[in-house]
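just leaving the lab so this will be short. what follows is a protein written twice so to speak, once as letters and once as structure tokens for the fold. can you read through it and tell me how you think this chain folds. anything you notice is useful, everything is just below:
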Amino acid sequence: MKRELMLKKISREELWDIVIIGGGATGLGTTLDATSRGFKTLLLEQNDFAKGTSSRSTKLVHGGVRYLQQGDVSLVFEALKERGLMFRNAPHLVRNQSFVIPIYDWWGGPFYTVGLKVYDFMAGKLGLGPSKYISKKETIKALPNVERKGLKAGMIYHDGQFDDARMAMSLAQTCVDYGGTVINYMKVTKITKEKDIVSGVVAIDQENHQKHTIKAKVVVNATGVFADEIKKMDDPATKEMIVPSIGVHLVIDKDFLPGNHAVMVPQTSDDRVLFAVPWYNKVILGTTDSLVDLPSLEPRASEKDIDFILETAGQYLVKQPTRKDILSVFAGLRPLAMPEKEEKATKEISRHHKVMISVSGLITIIGGKWTTYRKMAEDIIDNAIMIGELPERKCITHHLLIHGYNINTDANSNPMSVYGLDQAKVLNIEEESEKFKGYLSESLQIRKAQVIWAVREEMGRTVEDVLARRTRALFLDARESLRVAPETAKLMAEEFGYGEDWVKNQIVQYSELAKGYLI
């Protein structure tokens, strides 16, 4: 997957069947659906793949126990089916994660037992394991750091856990495997029209500032929280339809949650759900659900949200995390569809997706979540076939294996399992030169060869691309990522053939960015 080759394909192609704006989960999934049906498809991303929301999730592939509580049965059914398909199609990226709900009220036992049995039943053959009621003693054994005072029992249930940015990268590679064209740092600046009907886009290459006029039978707006901006390119008078809400996450050391189980707190002081999830030998605490005024590529956590997470987690853990224990803080924006009733709280807004078609033929997708990316993509392309008068071709992504597919892998003991069958190719880079051997960061288990692979095969263009998304250093330990940034920049510069000025500039840019992930 090389950017130079993608640019050549863009220059050669006179008319695309489908152009997709947005390189997050939805855009990549939509591109894969379209390319696997045999359509000439181009994806344009203004920054890097999964730069926004799609790399900033709670790292869960789940049906949504909370949505079941809210009575949104159809969403839970859909999400549980899609969770099972993700697990089957990408076992190197999605793993079975057991969750424990500590119970402190006697009524909680029967309530969760019944609710989670319904959750299991709805998953059917695609279930990841049965839920079960466990005693106080068993709960403490599963969660050694759980608060004992008032503890009555616990419930264990199963959901999926994954690396969101690595999943996005594998989707991009799968798109290319099927003949699709995907490119990052290509910003759409205009929607073009012929006789008032959308006919393509104008995009500017953010690296060389070259303008590209691209023609297409169908244009899809899959830009998440930025969907309103693209809609206004089509119709300046269009009403805003996105309500961005921010989800904040804190990363702490694994010592706070020893063992392999995650914790789910089903009802916090303000009726949210809080998770503590093991991830790459660290623990993610989150999340929040607060309204924000404007979308941003780098949303920042408020002091209030940080304190809320720490305070709530501290109520359930004997060893309580404090601000000094935070290794990284990151936030993502959810592209929620604006509710009919303005007074609705963000946590009550439906996570269902909506596909909308403007009078000019622009297709826009809003809402949804990572787990249902495949179904969202299927719905979009079914509509695109109609709008673009494309040949009728059925969706085949139900059983389409994601790039690197490898069933013989163990994410718990092997941090490089996310590369799947490409792992051997990554490690083979170490044989090329002594400077490629060994760890970039031993504490995070990131190898120098991964940097080279990111440049050669994954369209990594900046130090941020490599340390934030090709590897997860920034999200796991911001200070450690700052320590390895200079060496990362030097490795990349040598691979690109860039000089010392590029190295210095990248270190400055990355250092400024990483400050936002530190307390």
